[in-house]
Amino acid sequence: MSKSSAPKSPASRSSAPRSSAPRSLAEWLHHLETLHPVGIDMRLERVSEVAKRMGLLNRPIATQVITVAGTNGKGSTLAMMDAVARAHGLRVGTYTSPHLVRYNERVTINGDDADDQQLVTGFSRVEDARLQLPVVSLTYFEAGTLCALWCLAQENLDLALLEVGLGGRLDAVNIIDADVAIVTTIAQDHANFLGTDIMQIGREKAGVFRAGKPAVLGSRCLPVSVAESANAINAPVYCLGEAFSHSVADDAANPLCGNTQPEWNWSGLTCQADVISLTNLPDPGLPIDNAAAALQALILSGMAVNEDACRRALNKVLVPGRMQWIGQWCLDVGHNPHAAAYVAKRLPCVPEGGRQWALIGMLNDKDADGVISALLPRITDWVCVTLEGERGRSAAELASRITSLGGHVHHCASSPEAGVQTMAEQLAPTDRVLVTGSFYTVAALLEMTLPQA
C-alpha cells in the first residue's frame, strides 16, 4: 500500500496565521488541551473534515481494519488480536486509549510503542490540516485519534486494530470504515454521555458496523439492539454461542479462588461458512469470551489460522493494568460493576492467615456502589484514596459507601501514592492487594516501586 500523506492546501483554502508549533511531544499534548472548549464532543463533522484535509479518507489505512467497541473487554480483545496476528507474521498497528504511563502506548507498530518523533510529526500534520480555513476546533481525543490514524497509515500495515474510545457511532475512531467490527460487552458506563438505556447504548456501540461487513458479537448477554442494528444494514452477524464458541474440557475451577482455567477449545466460521476448530489453547489470563471473539474476527479478516501460532501468542499476551501482578499487588483498571465482577471471580485465594486488601480510587461519574458490591465478598480490608481533579472522588466518600455496604475501611489516603505508603506499613507476607477503580489509580502505582512484605 502506498504511504498516505497530507495534501497541499488548495489556493482557495489558504492557511490561517498561527504561532510557532510545539516542538516536543509534551508540548503538543499540552497544546491539545487548549483546542476545544469541552473535553468530549460527540460529533463527527469536525474530525471528518480534518481527516479529509489530511488525506486519511482517500485510501485504506491498512489492508484490513478491525474496530473494537463495547463497555468492557475492548483492550484485552485488541491485545489478543495483535499478539495472534503478529504470531502469524502479519504487520500490525494498533490504536488504543487511554494510556497508563506514557502517551506513546496509544499507538503501536508491530508491538512497539510509537516514538516521540512519529507522534510529533503526526500532530504537526493534524495541526496543519486543522488550521486550513475555515479553522476547525478539535478535542484532545479527536486530535490524538487523527494523529494515530496518520501514523498507522504510514506503515504499510497488513492489519490495523482500532479501539473505540467512548460510544461507537459518534466516536472519532468511527470515521474509518472497519472491514470487521466487534462489540464485546454492553453495560452502563459513561452515563453522562451515553445515558442509562441499555438498548440505546447497544445501538450506539453497534454504530461501528458497516453494510455487508462482518459484525462479531462477543457476548451472550448483549441487548437485542446490537444484532438488530447489524441486520438493518445487512452486516453478516457472528454471535458468540452460535457462529463461534469455546469450551473447557474440565470446568472444575473454583470461581471464588480464581484458579487458572484449564486449556480450552474454540470453533468458528470463515466468511464462506467453513467451520474451523482449534484445540488445547492456553489460558491467556484474560476473558475467554474476548479471546474467542478475537479469533473469530481475525479469521473473518482473511487470516489463515495456524493452531501452534495461536497457542504461542495466547500463552504470552499481557495487557498492562488488567489483572497485572507485581509481586503481592494485582493491578486492574476495572471501573464499572461488570469489570469488577470479573476481577472478583479471577482473584486467587490468599494464603492461609492472609488478608485480601483493596486499594481503590474512583472518578465521581462511575458507579461506585456497583463496583464495591461486586468486590465486597472477596475483600477483607479497604484503603480508599482520593483522585484529584474535576471528576475526582474523595476517599471519604468512597469509605462512606463501603461502610454502608458492610465493608471494613482500614484507612483513607489523600492520593494513590499515599495509599501505598499506608500499605507499606501494614503488608504481611501472606497478604495480597488489589488496586482498582480507575485508570488514574493504576497509572499512579505503575510509576512507583511497590513495597513487598
The CATH topology assignment of the largest domain is UDP-N-acetylmuramoyl-L-alanine:D-glutamate ligase
- Name the CATH superfamily assignment of the largest domain: Mur-like, catalytic domain
Q: Which value, in Å, is the CA radius of gyration?
A: 22 Å
Average residue pLDDT: 90
- Lateral arrangement of strands in the main beta sheet: 4-3-2-5-1-6-7-8
Q: Would you identify the CATH architecture of the largest domain?
A: 3-Layer(aba) Sandwich
The low-pLDDT segments are 1-17, 251-256
Structural class: alpha/beta
Number of strands: 17
| Sheet with most strands | 8 strands, mixed
| Overall body shape | globular
Number of domains: 2
CATH class bucket of the largest domain: Alpha Beta
Work out the helicity level: 25-40%
How far apart, in Å, are the first and last alpha carbons?
54 Å
Classify the beta-strand content into a percent band: 15-25%
Q: What is the number of helical segments per DSSP (H or I, 4+ residues)? A: 15
Task: Describe the protein in words.
The protein has two domains: 25-316, UDP-N-acetylmuramoyl-L-alanine:D-glutamate ligase, CATH 3.40.1190; 324-446, Protein-Tyrosine Phosphatase, Chain A, CATH 3.90.190.20. The chain contains 15 helices and 17 strands. The chain has helices at residues 25-32, 45-54, 74-87, 116-130, 140-153, 191-194, 198-205, 224-232, 288-300, 307-316, 337-346, 368-375, 395-404, 416-426, 439-446; strands at residues 62-69, 92-95, 107-109, 112-113, 157-163, 180-183, 215-217, 237-239, 245-248, 264-269, 275-281, 324-326, 329-331, 356-360, 381-385, 409-413, 432-436. The longest helix is centred in the N-terminal third of the chain and has 15 residues, at 116-130. The model is unreliable at 1-17 and 251-256 (pLDDT under 50).
